[in-house]
Structures are given as C-alpha cells and as structure tokens.
Design brief:
Largest sheet: 7 strands, mixed
Strand order of the largest sheet: 14-15-16-13-12-17-18
Number of strands: 20
Strand content: 15-25%
Structural class: alpha/beta
Bound molecules: nicotinamide-adenine-dinucleotide
Distance between the termini: 54 Å
Radius of gyration: 23 Å
Number of helices: 15
Shape: globular
C-alpha cells in the first residue's frame, strides 16, 4: 500500500498472498486494506490537490518524463514482476511496461494543449471557458493489463492536476505498487498518487462512497461496473466505465486468409485470452470456412504454452483460480451439451498437471449454436468459438446479437464491405483487417454493457476536467 508517498501497512494489520499463476508459489504478501485505509488515502490525495493543481502542466509533465526514463531503465525487472504475478509471457509483459511509458509520454505532450474556449455573445458580451481539475479521483482496475490500465487512468488524471487513489486488482498489485514508487522517486509529490490494496467490495466501495472523491474511473466486469456506477451516481460523481466485451471477428470470403488466421490467433490467445477486446466470437463465410478452420487449427497447435518467465513461450496460464475454474467448467458444459465440435485443445495440458499453474490448452470449437454460453457470455480465456455464416448481412446480425459493444473487426479486401461493417457493427471500436490494436492517441471505450465514456486520446483529458464559464459584459 502506498499512502502519502510512503509504503504503509493496513490499519487492520492484515496481509494477503500474491500467487504466481504459473507455479502456484507465493511471490509476496501485500497489506489487506480496509475502509480506514481508503479514507486515509483520500485525505492524503485531498491535501496534495491544491499544490499539484496550482503548478503548470509542464511542471507535472517533467515528473512523468523522469518516471518514464526510470521505467525504461528498469523495464526488464518490471516485466519479470508483471509476468510473475499476472502470468503473461515476458515479451507481452515488456510490451505492457513500454505501453505504460508511452501513455505517460503522450500526456506530457498533450498537457498544455487543453485550453478553454472564447465566445462572442449577442448584445456586446463575451464569454470564456476555463478548464479546472476535478479534485480527488479514484481508479479501480482489473488484473488482465494492470500496468497499461493504470497508465490509462493516472496519465490524464494527474497531468490535468487531479490527485488520485488507485485500487489495484487483488491478484496483481505488485507492478502497480512498484510503478507508483517509481513515480515518487521521479519527484511526484507525496499524496498525489496513492495505492490502496485490498478487496473490491471493501476498499473499492469505500473509495466510491467517499464524498471527497469527485470522479471514479473503473475498469472491470460489467456487473461490478454497474454496482460502482450506482454508488457513484448516488454520490453525484462523474464516472467512466470500461467494462467487459465479447468482440466479434468477421471473416469474409475475400479476406487475406493468412493475415486473418494470424489476427485470430493473436486476437484470441494474446494474454491467454484475457483481454477485454480479445476476439471472443468468430464468424466466417461458409464458402471459406473449412480452409480457414484448418489453417487456424494448425496455427493454434503451434502455440507454445508454459511459464511466461521462460524463453519462447507464446501463452502463459490464466491469472487466477476463479478464471481457470470458469473456463474448465464452461468447456466441460459445451462437451456435455454437445454444443459444437472441439477441433483442438479443450483441457488442462497434461504436462502442466504437476506445476500447480492455471494452464488451459488454446481451444478451438466450431459450429457453436447461437444460444451457447460461449457466444452469450464474456469468455475471458483461451477458447475460440467459430460460427459459419452465409454472408455479411448474417455475420453482422449475429455479431450484434450481444449485450456487449466494446470492439469488432471485419476482414475483407472489399471497401464496400468494410464500410458496411463500420456503419452497422455496434461497438465502440471497429478494426478493419486487424484486431486488438490500441494507441494512446486514439479514444477507446465501449457501448451497451461495455461501458460509458472514453479513455486515451485528447478526449480522455476532458473526463478529468470541469468547465468553468466566465461571462463578461462590455
Ligand atoms: P472485476 O470487476 O472483478 O474487478 C475489477 C476491479 O474492481 C478489481 O480491482 C476489484 O477488486 C474491484 N471490485 C470488485 N468488486 C467491487 C465493488 N463492489 N466495488 C468496487 N470495486 C470492486 O474484474 P476483473 O475480473 O478484475 O477484470 C476482468 C474484467 O475487466 C473483464 O470483464 C474485462 O473485459 C474487463 N476489462 C475491461 C477493459 C476495458 O477497457 N473495457 C479493459 C480490461 C479489462
């Protein structure tokens, strides 16, 4: 836990274990935060707000630049820590740490560009708007991309002059705590960023309920998001919700099959399938389905599974037991109900039985019926359901048949089809001939049960700024 720039224990004196998901070994223990810890962190953030809001955005950016330099120097160690607690292969962990650095760098450049507007008002008047930071913000984040999502929150919040309390996921707080201490080392004043570890229902809710918290930015499951939104709205707070997704990938008969196979492989199995915008449903034209499935099967069979800390690993374990049990149970149910044909995978790898890790084979299931849980729920793991469709109209109809609306991709060389996909697919992000790609410059977020608001890009700054209007009579 980090409050007021210092590592502290919890008021309750409790600790909880952080387990390596590849080995089942204990890596570390962190303080089990309480409501009192959340309150102390908010007080620290509140005390730090005045001075931090007062200095220029360039001064704030200097802290970010120094932190980015340290992070790049320690990238290997940070990536190894992330792999140990999260399970992702080292290369993915390095990408994520670099992503953290790039997000902070992006906001340094943007910081001074966020100015107000000037208006000429009828009857000899003028008006200007100025933008003001909100005050104390709370950020509650998940375990799938703990470093990147931390950057998506603290980048725009802190550069705009807010202070923040971060609540990491309980299985992945170590990288978050280390990154927070690097920011302190880089000169971030005490109290500007505080990290409280502990259960979501306790620490998370205490933050959302605290009257000094002006904005809550939440990333996690849709159900948790609804609970957070209810509490935030009843306290009249701003709220951003980045929630679950069940992204469809549509492969047309004119698609470049080689790149579509590579896109599906990465889109589904990156981070062991635990990416909010992972390809969670694949719709392929029936005329090319056999060929596509064969090629995808070969590619999936080539994935190397193991402890991500080792060289040449393509896919690590699931992050936690709950997730692992869910995936095992879901696939068992699919087999029991005969909902589709498992082409490859479908079980815990034989050679991982002794490792105590949460491994599951990358799994391809074809001809899955529309009512299957595989197509209805957000499947956060390495299981890819494939459905054959007659044409693009049917693909779009099926793709939109979901409560979610985070991302969607269409794979085609035909511009008319690509445009139709962009117009008719109901999601916050549409990719053409790619999937998963995000960038600090580009707004990101979902529609329907996938969320409210946007992160990244210039727009994210406005999520952390209030407008004050000043009217002048001349
Ligand atoms: P989760 O909802 O279980 O937990 C997210 C965070 O909320 C954790 O820190 C948790 O401790 C906290 N929390 C739990 N209950 C709470 C409560 N009652 N009040 C306040 N906080 C509470 O989600 P998860 O399992 O950690 O993450 C996976 C989910 O996150 C998936 O649904 C995934 O799609 C989603 N996600 C979305 C995005 C996006 O940008 N849309 C990005 C990454 C992950």
């Amino acid at each position: 836990m980090q409050i007021n720039g210092k590592a502290v224990e919890s008021c309750g004196g409790e600790f909880f274990d952080i387990i390596n998901p590849a080995t089942g070994e204990l890596i570390d223990q962190v303080p089990g935060g309480t409501k009192d810890d959340a309150a102390l962190a908010v007080e620290a953030a509140s005390s730090a707000f005045g001075d931090w809001a007062y200095i220029s955005s360039q001064q704030r950016a200097r802290v970010f630049y120094r932190a980015v330099e340290i992070i790049r120097q320690r990238k290997d160690a940070l990536a190894a820590l992330l792999t140990k607690e999260q399970g992702k292969p080292l290369l993915e962990a390095k990408n994520e740490i670099e992503g953290f650095a790039q997000v902070l760098e992006y906001y340094c450049g943007l910081a001074s560009s966020s100015q107000g507007d000037f208006f000429k008002v009828p009857q000899n008047g003028y008006a200007i708007t100025v933008k003001k930071p909100l005050g104390v913000c709370a950020a509650i984040i998940p375990w799938n991309m703990p470093a990147l999502i931390m950057a998506w929150k603290i980048g725009p919040a802190l550069i705009s002059g807010n202070t923040l309390v971060l609540k990491p996921a309980s299985s992945t707080p170590l990288t978050n705590l280390t990154l927070a201490s690097i920011l302190s080392e880089a000169g971030l004043p005490a109290g500007v960023l505080n990290v409280v570890t502990g259960p979501g229902e306790l620490v998370g809710e205490a933050l959302v309920n605290n009257h000094k918290v002006k904005k809550v930015s939440f990333t996690g499951e849709s159900m948790t998001g609804k609970r957070v939104a209810e509490l935030a709205v009843s306290g009249n707070k701003r709220v951003t919700l980045e929630l679950g997704g069940s992204d469809p990938m549509l492969v047309c008969d004119d698609a470049d099959l080689k790149s579509a196979v590579a896109g599906a492989l990465r889109g589904r199995f990156y981070n062991c399938g635990q990416t909010c915008t992972a390809v969670k449903r694949l719709y392929v034209f029936e005329s090319i389905a056999e060929d596509f499935i064969k090629k995808l099967e070969t590619a999936i069979r080539g994935l190397r599974i193991g402890n991500g800390i080792n060289e040449n690993i393509d896919m690590g374990p699931l992050n936690n037991r709950r997730q692992w049990e869910y995936i095992k149970e879901l696939v068992a149910e699919i087999e029991e109900k005969d909902e589709g044909r498992i082409i490859t995978g479908g079980k815990v790898p034989a050679n991982s039985a002794s490792s105590k890790g949460y491994f599951f084979e990358p799994t391809l299931i074809v001809d899955v019926p529309g009512e299957s849980r595989l197509l209805k729920e957000e499947v956060f793991g390495p299981v890819l359901p494939v459905v054959r469709v007659k044409n693009l109209d049917e693909a779009i109809k099926e793709a939109n048949n979901t409560i979610y609306g985070l991302g969607a991709s269409i794979w085609t060389k035909n511009l008319d089809r690509a445009i139709l996909g962009c117009q008719q697919l109901n999601a916050g992000v549409i990719w053409i001939n790619q999937h998963l790609k995000v960038a600090p410059e580009v707004p990101f977020g979902g529609v329907k049960e996938s969320g409210i608001g946007r992160e990244n890009g210039p727009y994210a700054l406005s999520e952390y700024l209030d407008l004050k209007t000043i009217m002048l009579k001349t």
